[in-house]
User: Fold LacI family transcriptional regulator from Devosia geojensis.
Amino acid sequence: MQDDTGRPAKRGRRGAPPSDKPTLKTIAQMTGLAVTTISRALNNAPELAQETRERVQKIAAEIGYLPDRAALRLKTGRTNVIALVLEPDEQIYGFGTSLVTGISEALRGTAYHLVITPQFRNVPPIEPIRHIVRNRMADGVIFSKVESADERVRFLIDAGFPFVSHGRSELDEPHAFVDFDNEAYAHGAVQRLADKGCQRVAIVLPESALTYSEHLRRGFVTAADERGLAHEVAADVTLSSATDAIRTYVMKRQRRPEPPDGYVCCSEISALAVIGGLADSGRVIGETAHVVTKQATPLFAQFRPGAETVFEDFVAAGRRMAELLLERVSGAPAAGLQVIDEPRFDWPD
Assistant:
C-alpha cells in the first residue's frame, strides 16, 4: 500500500488507521465498539463491564490517545484537569513532590489529570489563580500557604470556583481545606523540651500573615507558660529566610545573655540551620541543647542531627485534598469538607 508520494503508507500501532492524533474513532475502529462506548469506558462508566473498560483504556494508553480538551470543554463545560499552584522552591524541599504524589494517587483511575502551575515569588499569589479561573484552565485548583484573610480564598468563593487549600483562612465563609494542627504540634514540642530540662525555648515562625504562624505561636506560648519556661520568638528571621541567615541568627543569639537551650522548628530545612548554628556555638544537640522539628521526608533522618521529630504526612495531605476537590467539583458543599490532621508524638524513651 502506498501514499500519494509513492512511499509505503504508515500504519498505526496494533493496525490502527494512519492518523496524526488518535481519536475516539481510532479506538472504535480497533476494537469494533461504538464511539459512545469508548467514551464511557475511558470515563470508567460503572455500567460497562470491567473487562471492556480495561481493554479500551489499555489500547488508549498504547496508541497515545489524549482527549481533546477544547472539544470537551465546549461539550460539557469541564476540562478534566486539576490545577496545583506550587512555588518552585517547594518542589526542591520535598513538599511539592509529596503533594503531587498524593494528588496523583487520588486521581488515578479517574478522568482527571494534574497540571502544575508555577507560583513565582515576584508574582502576586492571586495572579495564577485568576489566570486559571478566567481562562477556565481547570475544573478545580489546589494551593498552599494560606493567609488569615487570603485574597485567593475570597476570589474563588466569589467566583464559585471549586478549590481546596493546604491550610485555612479565618474568613467567615467556610471553604474546603486540609491542615495540620500546628497549635497542638508547637504545644507538644515545648512540653517535650521542658521534659528534657530546657529552661528557655525559642521558635522560628513562618511569615506573620500566614494563618498557621499564629497557630504555632499560640501553642508555643501556651505550653511555655504552663511549664514556667522563658520563651522567645526568633527575631529578624522567619521560616522562609535563607538557611545561612537562620544559622547566623542562632549563633549570634547564643553569644548573648540567657541564650535558648531548646528550639521548636517548623520544617526540616530550618531545623538543619538551627542545629548548625547551635553546633557552631559549641552546643551538643541532645545534651546541652535540644531541638524538636516537624519531619516530612526520610532525608532528614539521614543526617542524624540529634533532633527529635514529629511526622507531617504531605503525601496523605495531597491525597485527601484531591479527594475533597473531586467532591467539590461534583457539587458537594464546602462546609463539610475540612480536615485537620493531629500530630503524633512518638518520643523515644
Summary: The CA atoms of residues 188 and 345 lie 7 Å apart. The domain at 182-311 is CATH 3.40.50.2300 (Rossmann fold). Confidence is low (pLDDT under 50) at residues 1-19. The chain has three domains: 24-67, 81-180+315-341, 182-311.
